[in-house]
Amino acid sequence: MGIQVIPLSPAIGAIIEGIHLSQSISHEIKQFLEQALVEHQVLFFRNQPLTPAEHYRFARNFGDLHIHPIYPNVPEQPEILILDTERNDLRDNALWHTDVSFSATPPLGSILSAKKIPPIGGDTLWASGTAAYAALSPAIQQLLTGLTAQHDIAKSFPADRFATNPEERSRFEAALKKNPPVTHPVVRTHPISGLPALFVNEGFTTRINELSDPESQALLAFLFQHSQRPDFTVRWRWQKDDVAFWDNRVTFHYAIDDYRPQHRVMQRATVNGDKPYFLER
Ligand SMILES: O=C(O)CCC(=O)C(=O)O
Ligand SMILES: [Fe+2]
């Protein structure tokens, strides 16, 4: 197929060359990408200008698309959301998170397209939840088995920043009402690879249900810190028209907020996923 895969670290990340994302892709290439996504967890593509319609069409190869309850979207393509530092307070993406884990069925993946990149700064990091889980001692792995945690939209979208005018407030209140806190397993089995992955994230996870408050806080603090270890991460220096496609089932990411007052604009499509589960191995 003339496709090149260039891994970026043992744990996570690969550059894919030789595929044009703006054109329709064959079933063979779709399957190749799905497999590469499971293996490398985040795929990077250079020089892939995508209109919102092309972005939508590429993402639809992998499932139905999610419409974000809070972020603004492209009016004629509501599945494409806009992350524009001049329109929104995006500070909360500078925190390790898994997209939309506050949903009962969090996204399978997100596909992010760089529209405007500051001359320096604005890199994004991804971390592998499978590598993080594998590096835990058997005793801690055993402890986590069977634990569940709450994920809450309100943790990353507080009213004082996302409900600043009447229009925002009504959208915000509807989002909270539609998305009450949900419970997910602390360790999630990847539905394709079958590998276990840590599935608690600083952005949305509020507590571990089976523990007391202090126990939950201490264990979550440890798990967040552990999963951020550089060994499990890859860092991407963006150029305009780069695309990143990550497996949101087993990864965390962090958008570095170090470029103000420079302007940065990204567009994202978010592919719906299934309900997380844990299978004893
Ligand atoms: O702006 C970025 O690099 C990533 C932002 C983010 O968290 C996302 O698109 O899900
Ligand atoms: Fe995100």
Automatic annotation (TrEMBL):
Q: Which UniProt keywords apply?
A: Dioxygenase, Iron, Metal-binding, Oxidoreductase
Domain of life of the organism in this record?
Bacteria
Q: Name one GO cellular component term.
A: cytoplasm
Q: Its Enzyme Commission number?
A: 1.14.11.17
Question: Which Gene Ontology BP annotations are present?
Answer: sulfur compound metabolic process
**Any one GO MF annotation of this record:** metal ion binding
Give the cofactors, semicolon-separated.
Answer: Fe(2+)
Residue limits of the TauD/TfdA-like domain? 5-270
To which protein family does this belong? Belongs to the TfdA dioxygenase family.
Q: What is this protein called?
A: Taurine dioxygenase
